[in-house]
């Protein structure tokens, strides 16, 4: 039995990919996919499926890949997940389905994410069977993973769905946040196009709370789902943060991804630092660091805890290291120095203390351990908070201290017919969790309307 | 939607577009702005809504960079690719007493809806407008209808007071009580109006660098009383006395080098 080692994902060589924005992971060939699918034990009670927030029928789709029935496999996945090309790429499978895979106990789990991606990428397009429409209208606010999923699920049930997106392109964080080399925009577009084919209308440049109020949506639609995300960047709040060359990861990534500043044909500028420091240890920090590297910088990621506590996916950290990104652990910036532009940062060494509420050891500054480091660009990737626009204009909606919308177990807000999910509720989580919320809300909305 | 229904060269430097945008027009309030993009590879740029009626909004701009120069090339019946708005927190309008509206150059245009709303709220409205020379004023008839007095200042003395809007303000301050000032124009002008005004509250409309215009990028962050605020959602209007002007004056120059390269390419 060849079940021990999993098939490795073909990649662009690190020395080549660190200079371009093309996708790093190249995708499994059919031969490799079938080889990997054959590792699956087809457990009687598949544990992996319990780890999936949207309940993808993992066992069944892998069985179909084994039999070379790729189109059947993708159909199977799409019964539960309409963004498989995206999820296959950006889901943290190691903490979800693959974490539960029994093969993982003694060796490596089945590469479920890679197989999902394989099925999605090799789908042969076919016409969508017509859906019988009911006469109910649903408004979705935000076209990120939560909104798109909720929209698609409701469209499948026959609802007329309109998605309101504030930016000029749909996709939310999939479009403005996650870089091309990790999630090609043509994949995002393909999956959004599929959702549109289900009859979902996406209205761009439509900021809710401004162009229309929530009240107006409630009057015009039978139910509303809010998936506006956690789009507001947190800053360090240290001196010098207003110097030229200091970015939030959101601004840097929006310029690079949404506005395509990495491509000289596009007008939007972005600073291309020679010595770039990225503050933070999450996926966004990795995305920013690896983008800055591709723009020609020497990049150091500075994180206040150790590698073990980093919230970023293991694969992202591994890729970043291979590409030549340096890491400074147990270090935290205390001041940004420079006259008009950033010239250096002052930072302090940290040590790990007691565990905090997140179960991670709290970093504590070590006295008199300050040093300075030269740099010409700093990217702050220490998290985001919920977007406030809708809440500010909708006083009757219950929201918490950090601006997150408060919902009950079924995703319902305090307002009748108004549901919310994704990062606007959770604060900051993953694409797949947001999708799980969107899906659950779709069920609840369906129950509510019936 | 987004169709240019009127184009007017207001003077040598300023161009007016009236754009079909009934939904934005319906929600627009004084002090708000839009973000537009004119082609797939173009930038997003913010412009203040200078006026609106039932079906359209009025934008006034000056071709200075690549995007505004391309915008100037558009003709009547052309469509603006993306138009997002209305954005920002509307002006605070109430009966203050005597309100002085100060507009410098292109900043004259966005003064209009605020002057109008201030007048409607029962204020005495006095306008002080500044420009390099007399040719560069516009909308004087429009402003006459919404203000009690208009004071013009020109750098070259070709009309009104020879000097800057600060000189106009100094003279006016000697004549009587002013309850509130609203100043819109180049950042440096707004800074000096604030310094001239002393204790009189000055509302300034800031125009820092912006990408999304709805609180996501933080590029437009400004220091207000030492605290980070986003001009796009917390502003664009702030009390001038609380603004860290030196920080803002530095940050608006972030892409000076890139803009310079852009202009070389244009020539």
Structure description:
- The complex is a heterodimer of chains A (450) and B (267).
- With 450 residues, chain A is α/β, with parallel strands linked by helices.
- Chain A folds into 3 domains: 14-121, Alpha-helical ferredoxin (Fumarate Reductase Iron-sulfur Protein, Chain B, domain 2), CATH 1.10.1060; 137-231 and 386-449, 3-Layer(bba) Sandwich (FAD/NAD(P)-binding domain), CATH 3.50.50.60; 234-384, FAD/NAD(P)-binding domain.
- In chain A, 34% of the residues lie in helices and 16% in strands.
- Chain A contains 18 helices and 16 strands.
- In chain A, the strands form 4 sheets. Chain A has a 5-stranded parallel β-sheet, sandwiched between helices. Chain A has a 5-stranded parallel β-sheet with strand order 6-14-7-8-9.
- In chain A, α9 (145-156) links the parallel β1 (137-141) and β2 (160-164).
- In chain A, α2 (30-37) packs across α3 (58-66), α3 (58-66) runs antiparallel to α4 (70-78) and α9 (145-156) runs parallel beside α18.
- The longest helix of chain A is centred in the C-terminal third of the chain and has 19 residues, at 431-449.
- The radius of gyration of chain A is 22 Å and the shape is globular.
- The mean pLDDT of chain A is 93.
- By secondary structure, chain B is of the alpha/beta class.
- Chain B has helices spanning 22-27, 66-73, 108-120, 140-146, 165-175, 187-197, 245-251, 256-266, and strands at 4-9, 15-20, 33-37, 45-52, 56-61, 82-87, 98-104, 124-131, 149-154, 161-162, 180-184, 202-205, 221-224, 227-230, 237-239.
- In chain B, strands 10-9-8-7-11-12-15 form a 7-stranded mixed β-sheet, sandwiched between helices.
């Amino acid at each position: 039995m060849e079940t021990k080692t999993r098939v490795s994902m073909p990649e662009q060589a690190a020395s080549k990919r660190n200079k371009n924005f093309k996708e790093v992971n190249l995708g499994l060939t059919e031969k490799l996919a079938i080889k990997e699918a054959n590792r699956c034990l087809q457990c009687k009670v598949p544990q992996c499926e319990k780890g999936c927030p949207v309940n993808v029928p993992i066992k069944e789709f892998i069985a179909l890949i084994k039999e070379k029935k790729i189109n059947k496999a993708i159909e199977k996945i799409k019964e539960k997940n309409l963004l498989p090309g995206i999820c296959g790429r950006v889901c943290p499978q190691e903490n979800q389905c693959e974490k539960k895979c029994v093969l993982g106990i003694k060796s490596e789990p089945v590469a479920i994410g890679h197989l999902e991606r394989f099925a999605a990428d090799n789908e042969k397009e076919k016409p969508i069977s017509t859906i019988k429409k009911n006469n109910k209208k649903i408004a979705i606010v935000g076209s990120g993973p939560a909104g798109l999923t909720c929209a698609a699920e409701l469209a499948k049930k026959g609802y007329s769905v309109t998605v309101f997106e504030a930016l000029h392109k749909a996709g939310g964080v999939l479009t403005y946040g996650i870089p091309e080399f990790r999630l090609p925009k043509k994949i995002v577009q393909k999956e959004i196009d599929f959702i549109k084919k289900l009859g979902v209308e996406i209205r761009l440049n439509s900021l809710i709370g401004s162009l229309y109020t929530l009240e107006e949506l409630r009057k015009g639609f039978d139910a509303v789902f809010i998936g506006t995300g956690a789009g507001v960047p947190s800053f360090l709040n240290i001196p010098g943060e207003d110097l030229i060359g200091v970015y939030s990861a959101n601004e840097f990534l929006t310029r690079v991804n949404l506005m395509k500043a990495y491509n000289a044909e596009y007008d939007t500028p972005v600073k291309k630092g020679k010595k770039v420091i990225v503050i933070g240890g999450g996926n966004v920090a990795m995305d920013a660091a690896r983008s800055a590297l591709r723009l020609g910088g020497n990049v150091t990621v500075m994180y206040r805890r150790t590698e073990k506590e980093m919230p970023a996916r293991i694969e992202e950290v591994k890729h970043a290291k291979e590409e030549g990104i340096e890491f400074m652990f147990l270090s935290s910036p205390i001041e940004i120095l420079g006259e008009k532009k950033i010239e250096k940062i002052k930072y302090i060494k940290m040590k790990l203390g007691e565990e905090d509420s997140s179960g991670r050891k709290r970093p504590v500054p070590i006295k008199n351990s300050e040093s300075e480091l030269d740099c010409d660009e700093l990217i702050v990737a220490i998290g985001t908070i919920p977007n406030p626009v809708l809440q500010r204009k909708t006083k009757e909606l219950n929201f918490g201290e950090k601006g997150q919308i408060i919902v009950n177990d079924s995703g319902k807000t305090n307002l009748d017919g108004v549901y919310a999910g994704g990062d606007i509720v959770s604060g900051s989580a993953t694409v797949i969790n947001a999708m799980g919320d969107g899906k659950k809300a779709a069920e609840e909305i369906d129950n509510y309307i019936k | 939607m987004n169709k240019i229904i009127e184009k007017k060269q207001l003077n040598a430097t300023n161009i007016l577009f009236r754009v079909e945008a009934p939904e934005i027009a319906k929600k627009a309030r004084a002090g708000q702005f839009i973000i537009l993009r004119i082609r797939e590879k173009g930038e997003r740029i913010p412009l203040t809504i200078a006026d609106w009626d039932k079906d359209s909004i009025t934008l006034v701009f000056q071709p200075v960079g690549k995007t505004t120069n391309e915008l100037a090339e558009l003709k009547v019946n052309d469509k603006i690719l993306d138009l997002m708005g209305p954005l920002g927190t509307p002006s605070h309008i109430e009966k203050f007493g005597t309100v002085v509206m100060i507009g410098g150059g292109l900043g004259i245009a966005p003064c209009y809806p605020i002057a109008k709303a201030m007048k409607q709220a029962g204020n005495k409205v006095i306008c002080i407008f500044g420009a390099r020379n007399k040719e560069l004023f516009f909308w004087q008839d429009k402003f006459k209808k919404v203000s009690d007095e208009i004071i013009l200042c020109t750098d070259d003395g070709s009309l009104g007071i020879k000097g800057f809007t600060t000189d106009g303000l100094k003279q006016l301050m000697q004549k009587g009580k002013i309850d509130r000032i609203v100043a819109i124009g180049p950042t440096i002008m707004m800074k000096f109006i604030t310094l001239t005004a002393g204790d009189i509250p000055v509302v300034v409309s800031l125009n820092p660098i912006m990408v999304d215009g709805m609180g996501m990028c933080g590029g437009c962050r400004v220091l207000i009383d030492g605290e980070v605020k986003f001009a796009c959602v917390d502003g664009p209007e702030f009390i001038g006395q609380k603004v860290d002007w030196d920080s803002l004056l530095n940050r608006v120059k972030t892409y000076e080098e890139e803009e310079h390269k852009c202009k070389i390419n244009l020539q």
